[in-house]
Amino acid sequence: MTSDLTALPRPERAAPKPTLRREIFVLAWPAVLELVLNMLSWMAGVAMVGRLGANALSATGFSGQIFWAAIFFTGGIGVAVTAIVSRRVGAGDPAAAGREGAQGILPALGAGLVIGAGLYFVAPGIFHLTNLGPEASSIGVTYLRTLCVGAPILTTTMAMSGILRGFGDTRTPMVISVVSIILGIATGYALIFGRFGLPALGPRGAALANVGGEAVALLLTVLVAFGGRHRAGLRPAWMFRVEKRVLSSIVGLGLPASLESFFIDLGRAAGMFAVASLGALAVAGHEVTAVTESLSFMPGYGFAMATTILVGQSLGAGDPVKAKAAVAATARLSVLLMGLMAVVFLLFPRALVSIFTNDPEIIDLAARCLRVAAFAQPFIALEGVYAGALRGAGDTRSPMLVSGTVSWGCRVALTYVAVFVLHLPLPWVWGVMVLDWGLKALFLYLVFKRGRWQVIKV
User: Fold this and answer.
1) Closest Cα partner for 220 from 130, 289, 156?
2) Three-class SS of residue 184?
3) Residue 168 buriedness (CB in 10 A; 0-12 / 13-18 / 19+)
4) Closest to 412 in 3D by CA, of 403, 425, 423
5) What is the pLDDT of residues 310-336, one digit of tens each?
6) pTM for this entry
7) Residues 189, 193, 194, CA angle at the centre, nearest 5°?
């Protein structure tokens, strides 16, 4: 990546607002619905496992944090291919978009294999460091190792979905999610509780259902992307091309994006060790709060995804004014919708967390945490939009630096102070998270306002 202050023309006027608003919604609503479906799948899993007791819930919750912290380290490949593909599409060269994007598929597969194998072997050691107890730790090791089987499947699907989104197609990944998630939930119910003639495998059944759903998603994504009817028009031979410029862009964009996710999720995992020291009840309450709070992420994620695509395509077409307008519009919409969710969290916390557990102690603790989490929602909205805009422009380094610095300098450090020094209960951990999101949103806004993202070449 290089910067060239004369590379992009600067149109005098932005695109008409109604047209831009329509583009935003066309891109955002499938991404929102896709996340809704993924959240529903997660919630269904938590609700079903939650019926098995605090040990099962805390074990799967902790395992999930560790697994996703590792998996999202590869998410930068998907970010990179989306940025590259959207630039080429905006420049009117869809053939180059498909050819260059396809070169990110095999690196994603390889990264998934390494992560899956690594986590499989270190799983017992990870749980040995916790205070969850022998029963929960045994459940957690089995659950985590089962998830590891699906790691390369998941990372490959993430990269291929990033290519489709770069073409402005957020609908196809959403439809694929509908099919795979419905199958995953039905299979999970059968394998957790032993229905329809299948064995009752408990938490391991939930993990097997997740892997099966991921396999279905990958199969459908491959059929669409390589089937010849999608405008991406991917060809198998393109995956094996070695264009140094393209690979350099994938590494240059993807590594910081991966490190961003790694710093965030590793910070969350480090925080989970602090939470785990409070006992199984705290871990279960933390998991129920997290899954309930995820309801609010849906509109924010959708509008952030729309921002990434529109910024990339607008800069590819030489129209930074439209890119700015898209960011401003998505920021307003995202804050409005997530602000409404914050009000719901404040007014009805017990009703919401009761969906996922019937344990009165967990309900009481999670409800108090959810009220605290409500104050983070506008900040999460702004962080998502400004980070998405910078990624779409090809600046993945700034979100990485902000996220890494704040996640560890604020979230991890203050969480450990709250738990181990001040001996504060779980709601204070969520208070630290509010501060964490607020600082990230502020710093990313300041980076975006400087405007250097407008002249980055991808």
Assistant:
1) 156
2) helix
3) buried
4) 403
5) 898 888 888 888 889 889 988 988 899
6) 0.76
7) 100
CB 458 within 8 A of CB 394: yes
Does 233 score more than 90 pLDDT? no
Cα separation, 338 vs 357, whole angstroms: 24
Return d(Cα 375, Cα 378) in angstroms, integer.
7
Backbone φ and ψ of 354, nearest 5°? -70, -15
Query: What stretches of 195-246 adopt beta strand conformation (E)?
Result: none
Question: pLDDT by residue (tens digit) across 9-40?
Answer: 444 444 444 577 777 777 777 877 777 777 67
Copy the structure tokens of residue 56: 């099962």
Cα Rg, the chain, nearest whole Å: 21
CB burial string 249-275: b at 16+ within 10 A, e below: bbbebbbbbbbbbbbbbbbbbbbbbbb
Q: Which residues does residue 457 pair with via DSSP β-bridges, in sequence order? A: 2
DSSP string, 266-318: HHHHHHHHHHHTT-HHHHHHHHHHHHHHGGGHHHHHHHHHHHHHHHHHHHHTT
* C-alpha closest to that of 166 among 253, 103, 87: 87
3-class DSSP state of 457 = strand
Closest residue by Cα to residue 65 from 44, 46, 40, 37: 46
CA geometry: angle 336, 381, 281, nearest 5 deg: 110
Question: By the 8 A CB rule, do 235 and 243 touch?
Answer: no
Q: 246 and 25 in contact (C-beta within 8 Å)? A: no
CA 308/CA 322 separation, integer angstroms: 13
Q: Reduced to 3 states, what is the DSSP secondary structure of residue 456?
A: strand
Cβ contacts of 240 within 8 Å, gap of 6 or more: 106
Question: What's the start-to-end Cα distance of the chain, in Å?
Answer: 6
The stretches of 167-198 forming alpha helices (DSSP H) are 171-193
Between CA 369 and CA 363 the distance in angstroms is 10
Read off φ and ψ for residue 233, nearest 5 degrees.
55, 45
Query: Look-up: residue for tokens 């995956």?
Result: 239
Tokens of 172: 């196809």
